[in-house]
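Q: What structure does this chain adopt?
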Amino acid sequence: MAESETVSLRPRTPGIVHPMASLRGLLREWLPRQRWFAGKDRPVTEVSLLSMTELYPGCLHLLVRAEHTAPPASLGPPPPDDCYQLLLGVRERLSPALRDAFIGFAEEGPLTGLAVYDALHDPRSATLLLERLRRPGSAGPLHFERDPSVPLPAGLAPRLLDAEQSNTSIVYGDAFILKVFRRIQPGVNPDLEVPQALARQRCARVPAPVAWIRTTQPQDATLGVLQPFLPGAADGWALAQRALASGSDFTTEAYQLGRATAEVHLSLATAFPTDARGDNGPLAASMAGRLGPAAHRVPALEPYLPGLRAAFDTFGACRAGHAVQRIHGDLHLGQVLRARSGWFVIDFEGEPSRPLAERRSAESPVRDVAGMLRSFDYAARTRRPWHPEWADRCRTAYCAGYAAAAGWDPRAAPRLLRAYETDRAVYEVVYEARHRPDWLPVPMAAIRRLALPGG
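A:
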């Protein structure tokens, strides 16, 4: 069989062994090595099938559950097992172009001897995904839907993005980008829900969804979103690094980014319900509750716990309440793009490690501000020699830009801002320890500062 020929995965005779018998062992080894796999510190004990759909001969769409060993009791109750979305191709042999997508040869079951690979790396599979979105319809529990008012041409060449991220993205002809969510939770993903709502508000800072994929099995969930691609745009992280490398000022960009953030927040406050929290205690307690498990995973946090708790206690005791609304939830320089027409905000999925209900809940806009302030510090500290004044100037300019558009300055709520910055830095410490240990000194520097009185 030539490598371009496909393999039918439909049962040919009654009682044939299910393809999962061939895939289970391969996936148990392959999943933990993927950048987007969330349970790297919890050994995988089993991979169970939640749904399987043959999109075309030789290509399977799967939702699988990765089951883990229970964590130590000191870390609290075990998190739920994770559900992942996979698109798997099966061939007798692979071309060299797909070697990075290779998962393994099946050694048992109905696919014995066949090569299994990540089909999102396959241009043919990527092209067929776009065709499914161009012609809305269903394939088993999968539903392909689109905004009919937006032209979606055929024949756009696919290009897989290789940047580190928690999902997988494919660019089509520099016109559209499809984000395929890897870790799936029941419900509408905020990266579809929020941009759709902002499009109704005519918010020009966020690209509107063009098409999307969802499933009804085992529960309703969003699987992917297609949006306009911004050719020539650069993300804020790359621009900041470029400015640092050349010794250029970045305050004008930071000021405009602050304005853009405020404009998005104002649109969100119109698109979704808002509220006010008069008691800061529950939020402060929730933040403080993350310290123990974080220190168990990263013992370097231990000496700073009293000072970090003090930051949360000071905020919790503050009588002034705070307004809450829908926010971005994971805002940093990598989540914004600078194009000719200005700044755009992208990736409204929130922190993927948090439950979907929590990511869709209302919070103070100061949380987004704190995330961006931490990102300026991150950018400055990743270069040597470190120039803290660069980050300080950017932080000041960003808040000034935000205040100019929003009508209020986040720095006017110092206890709230410090609490959110501290919570973010604790999250960063755990993230870096798990995924990029060489980067751990960056958030640890912030921990040392935030643990001091006044932060």
